[in-house]
Every structure is written in C-alpha cells, then in structure tokens.
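S1.2 Input.
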Amino acid sequence: IVAVGGVGGGPASLFGVPFDYPDPEFHYFMSKHAPDGSVLWVNFLQAQYGIRLRGLAIDSNGNFATCGDDYDNGFVHKYDPEGNLLWASVLGGAGQETATSVDFAPDGDLVAGGFSDYGAIFIDSLEINAGSFFVGATLRYGPNGDLEWYDAQPESPNHVFIAPGGEITAHEGLTRFRHFDASGSADWTKEFVDAQGFGQGFARFTHSARGPGGDIFAAGELVGSLEIDGFVLENLPGHCTDFIFARIGSDGILQWATLARPITDYDCAGQTFDVAVDGQGNSFVLGETAGPMMFDGTAVPALTVFLVSHDPAGNQNFVCLPLVGGIGLTTVAVSPFNQALLLGGMVDGPQTVAGISIDPEGDANHGYVVSVASPLATGVSAPHAVARLEAYPNPFNPRVTIRYSLPYGGEVQLDIHSVDGAHVRSLVRGYRAGGAETAAWDGRDARGRVVGSGVYFAVLRAGGTRLVQKVTLLK
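S1.3 Output.
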C-alpha cells in the first residue's frame, strides 16, 4: 500500500518517523506499507504554502506517480518503489496552476490532466493555451518524463484514464468526455448536454473511474432533461436534480444510465464523493443525499451517506448506509482479494481517520475510527491505538456476547444502534482498564422491550477510537 497526504503544525512524527521543519509549516508525505500495515518507509517534502495532492497511480513494477499543486504551480512526480524521485514536471504560469489527475500506461508512460485559471500553462519553455482565460490540458509523458504530446481545451480534465491498449479518456469539466488514441489523436467526444432542444438539460458528472476494457463509469446529477444515444433522461415534474449513474463504452456510446430520484418535490439529489469499479464491471458510488431519495425502490433519508452498487448491465446490486454515529467517509476502493469495499474519510476534523469494510452484498462487516492526534504528537504509530471488537454467536437468538479489548485504560462507551443509526441501548458506560472485556445484549431496548429481528450495530467508543460490529438478531 502506498499512501500520500499532508501534515502540518510543527515538530512531530508520522508512523514513528520524526520530522522537524519549523518553516514552512506544511509538509507533503508519502509512505509505503506492507500487507500487515507495517511501515516500510516514509518520505517528506516541504512547500512554502502547503501542498494539495490530487492524484496517485501505481504501475505493475511498483513505481508510483503523484500530482497536485503547491497553491501556485502544478506538479507531476514519478517515484521508484523505494520512494526515490525519478523525475518531476512543473506546470507553471501567471495564475493558479494544478495537475488534476494521473494514470499509468502499460508501457510506463504517464498521462496527466493540467489546468490554469490565467490563460496558459508553461512546462519548461513550452506554452500551452486554448485561446481562452481558462485552459485545461491532457498531457502524456514518456517513461523518463519527456512530454510526448498534449491536447489543450478550455475545460479542466478532472480525471484522465489509460485503457490497456494505451488509449486515453479525459473527463473534462463536468459534462464532457474525450477519447484519444495512443498517439494523441482525438477520435470521439461525448457531451452530456442537450443539443436537440429536447429538454435543455445536462448531466453534471463529478466523479468517474475506468472499468474493464476502457469503459468509463461516472456519477453525478441530472439537471432538466436530455436525450442521448437513445436514452431519454429527465427529471420528474417538481424535482430539482436526480442522481445519475452511467457507463460509457470505450467507443463513446452510452451503455446504460440509471437515476435515483428525490422522494419529495423541490428536493435536490446531493453529492457524490467517489467511484470504484471491480474487474467484472460492477460499479460502486459513494455519496451523500441532500433530500430523501429513492434508489430503485429503496428509500434513503436526507443528509445520509450512501454506497450504491450496479452490476455490469446497470441493474442495482444494493444500496447501503454504511455509517453509524455520523462518521464521514469520502473514498471507496475495491479489494482484489474478496471484493469487499474499503471506505476511508474523516470525522470530527482532520485528526481522525475512519474506515469500514462492506461485503459484496452491501453488508457492513466491521469499521474503525482512530484518533491520530495523540499518536502523532508523541511519535507513536497510529495503528497501535486500535482496539478490537467481536460478537458471538452471530447471528444470535436471544443473547449475544460482545467482546472487546483496549490497548490502555480509559472511559468506554458501548452502545447498540439500529440500521438507521437510532440508539437502542447502552451496554457499557464508564472507566475500564486496558485488556479484554465482555458485555452481553439480550435483544432488548433501553426500556426492556424486545426488539425485532434484523441487523443492529454494536458501537464501541474509547478515547479517540470508535469501532463498529454488525450483529444480526434472528427469531
């Protein structure tokens, strides 16, 4: 696993590796971890005003690339498996320049997306412009960092993808996808804006991912109505926006598109955070509703984080609500081993990291929340602060034993929640010494009433750690 991110604030350490850069205060870090989570190496970079990391890619040889900006110039970096910098490309200019996305080609080439808000991007002595105030560029670099070709447009490439044959798809702005062959010749453009006067609508895709064969899977919002490749997509009367999920073939033809609609009039869909695709073409979208939404017959409340999955043909596999207690999750990925989904994000500010594992049927297996503020200040590696939470038998009837262990003593809270996050019963409140503990739940709520069959969540809070364990009551 290669991780990248930013840290700030002054003398501290990360994963037990000290850093002390009093000026500037912001640092960009890279770390590599073995499968068991142990740290192989950590590197730090400095920036005058901080670094915004926007993309990470890893090739089959273990080389990796990053892109982003330092709040002034954009950058594309390539590293070897040990974290040594192989080459760097700077995207300069008179405005705010950034590199938005990066991906590896099978031959070791890199493709990246660049953007400037002031007329031109400069790479060494080369000036890239699109004849407009804003300029976006799709950039292809050779294995040694030489710029092989570029394409300039007045739209920023939010994401760029390389298919196994070397063809490139650029997701430009919010409504357009453009496809290039390996030499940089554009061979098709797909614009999700009504061009026939059907409904003066458009699809605003905020996130996309590459799937098998170079197909693109995208998620966002539908505004108004449009007709494209034989599909008629339209908001219902009284609706503000719908969620739209789509698959675009490598030939530029829309394969399928499906909508999730507001339940009440004048509500908007919300936002999407990330898209992931597995090797079979199942897609997974993480997002959050604004108003109450209907996903193929399943109601999702307002202001709720959701994970929705579609099969390769666009049929909904599941929609689940992977959160208990307001954990904020922003990223989804697919495990190559068991197809479980790993979601990561932050809760209660940037000092706390959250994650949860979801099986292929949409059921939450386990979760964690780890506060890294204290470990970073003391130089202790964050994984050492993780507790354990287990339940047996599971499923159960009528009684389940919940076993947990803590690395150190402190205040502990163990609660049972329903699938919609409602509090059912408190099992533990108060100080507990470090080590193994158990608690039992007899399937009753706080008033002693027997609860119904179904899925519940045991939620453990201890210091800066929160763990979640699914339990199923069968009658």
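S1.4 Remarks. Residues 373-378 form the longest helix (6 residues).
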